[in-house]
């Protein structure tokens, strides 16, 4: 290598740059231990100092051995108080702001791109379809390389969709539907294959679950996913515990990713510690592997150059930043991503919902009575303390959970705007807004429950059997 960093190093990610400094430090120590010529040692030291300076310039942090840069999972909202910080990683979302996470700052910190009007209009032109309400309302708000996906699509080059579910409970809640509702729309308007990963292995590693229970939850969650209306001829759903043992292509990609990601890197990205089990440390490679078409030879006929588009909540982005770093080094295209906001808990937008707390959300198994009771009793209100004050000053839609939920599930844009104006002006009371949400969710969930009843074990088996889908590659 040359004696000074070249411009190519500036294109490295902070984690890759950290690894480069670490490697150079090891080289210096090896040269000194081997009593190499003085000029050779001095050249290596100059290179190390230059790399450290470049690292500090790029990351704003001094290089510290064994302490890689935390890969942008802590979002500081411009204040010095710890309680005013947003914290986002694949397992925890916390904010002190009743409006929820500051997504504009999250885009800057994660280094993604905002889904703007131009991109939404381009999607509409490419598909010939009205943009989904999740796009129109900024629910899917950020992306990586969606422009490349559209470039390829407009040039008659196909891509495929990949999303997933971590089956931590038997019953899913309405928040879990968000990526699947949107993914179904993407599959229909672009007419592309879809793979759905059920990370039952992850839940066994992270939760107090037996392997058998994790697998059982995966199959039960698969029924809810199928009930969203996916086409069996275009969709492959797989359990990691099942598929890893049957696909050599999948396992080969896992091993390739594992070889190119160090322990320091996963510690920096995911916050793993020396006391975490090795299963957790190696799991990110398993979530990365479906991003590569060669993991599914039965679908893509062994082709390795088909790009992947991943719709997911933005808390999953650390997995795919890692994947995008690795992809060029193993000869694979980088996956593109579409990020959604977090679905708020009934108690407010400060945290994600918990499948273990039955009152934190509306579950897909809830009865109409349970839905009504939960919303009336637990949905955080943006209304005033008294009717008189509410009529005078109006409610706050930015923090009102009922209005937030309607933003996700009420299709009619004009109706949503009318509700916003009426609530903000004080014309509409909190109880009346909750009633609109109840009347929106009750039939939606009842219809889902009816579709789920039609999903048989045999149908689940068909969706989860590795097979050729209705596409030619």
UniProtKB/TrEMBL annotation:
Source superkingdom: Eukaryota
GO biological process, one term: tryptophanyl-tRNA aminoacylation
Any one GO CC term of the record: cytoplasm
EC assignment: 6.1.1.2
Top EC class, one word: ligase
Assigned protein family: Belongs to the class-I aminoacyl-tRNA synthetase family.
Protein name: Tryptophan--tRNA ligase, cytoplasmic
Species, as recorded: Ciccaba nigrolineata
């Amino acid at each position: 290598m040359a004696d000074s960093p070249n411009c190519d190093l500036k294109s490295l990610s902070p984690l890759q740059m950290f690894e480069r400094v670490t490697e150079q430090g090891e080289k210096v120590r090896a040269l000194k231990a081997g009593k190499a010529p003085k000029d050779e040692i001095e050249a290596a030291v100059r290179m190390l100092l230059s790399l450290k300076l470049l690292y500090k310039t790029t990351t704003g942090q001094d290089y510290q051995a064994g302490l890689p840069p935390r890969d942008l999972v802590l979002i500081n909202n411009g204040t010095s108080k710890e309680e005013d910080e947003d914290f986002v990683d694949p397992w925890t979302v916390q904010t002190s702001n009743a409006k929820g996470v500051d997504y504009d700052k999250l885009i800057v910190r994660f280094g993604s791109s905002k889904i703007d009007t131009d991109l939404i209009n381009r999607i509409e032109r490419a598909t010939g379809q009205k943009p989904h309400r999740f796009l129109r309302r900024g629910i899917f708000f950020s992306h990586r390389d969606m422009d490349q996906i559209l470039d390829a699509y407009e040039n008659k080059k196909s891509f495929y969709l990949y999303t997933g579910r971590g089956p931590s409970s038997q019953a899913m809640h309405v928040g879990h539907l968000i990526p699947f509702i949107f993914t179904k729309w993407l599959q229909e308007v672009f007419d592309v294959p879809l793979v759905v990963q059920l990370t039952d292995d992850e839940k066994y590693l992270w939760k107090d679950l037996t392997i058998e229970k994790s697998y059982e939850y995966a199959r039960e969650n698969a029924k809810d996913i199928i009930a969203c209306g996916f086409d069996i001829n275009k969709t492959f759903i797989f359990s990691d515990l099942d598929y890893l043992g049957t696909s050599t292509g999948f396992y080969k990609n896992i091993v390739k990713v594992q070889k190119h990601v160090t322990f320091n890197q996963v510690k920096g990205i995911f916050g793993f510690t020396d006391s975490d089990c090795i299963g957790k440390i190696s799991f990110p490679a398993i979530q990365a592997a479906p991003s590569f078409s060669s993991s599914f030879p039965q679908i893509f006929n062994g082709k390795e150059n088909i790009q992947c588009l991943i719709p997911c909540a933005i808390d999953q982005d650390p997995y795919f930043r890692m994947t995008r770093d690795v992809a060029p080094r193993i000869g694979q295209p980088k996956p593109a991503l579409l990020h959604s906001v977090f679905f708020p808990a009934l108690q407010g937008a400060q945290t994600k919902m918990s499948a273990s707390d039955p009152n934190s959300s509306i579950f897909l198994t809830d009865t109409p009575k349970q839905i009504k009771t939960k919303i009336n009793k637990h949905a955080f209100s943006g209304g005033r303390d008294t009717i008189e004050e509410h009529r005078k000053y109006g409610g706050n839609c930015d923090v009102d959970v009922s209005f937030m939920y309607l933003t996700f599930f009420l299709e009619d844009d004009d109706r949503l705007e009318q509700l916003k104006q009426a609530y903000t002006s004080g014309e509409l009371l909190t109880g009346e807004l909750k009633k609109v949400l109840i009347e929106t969710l009750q039939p939606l969930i009842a219809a889902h429950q009816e579709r789920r009843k039609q999903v048989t074990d045999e149908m689940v088996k068909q969706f989860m059997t590795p097979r050729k889908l209705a596409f030619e590659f």
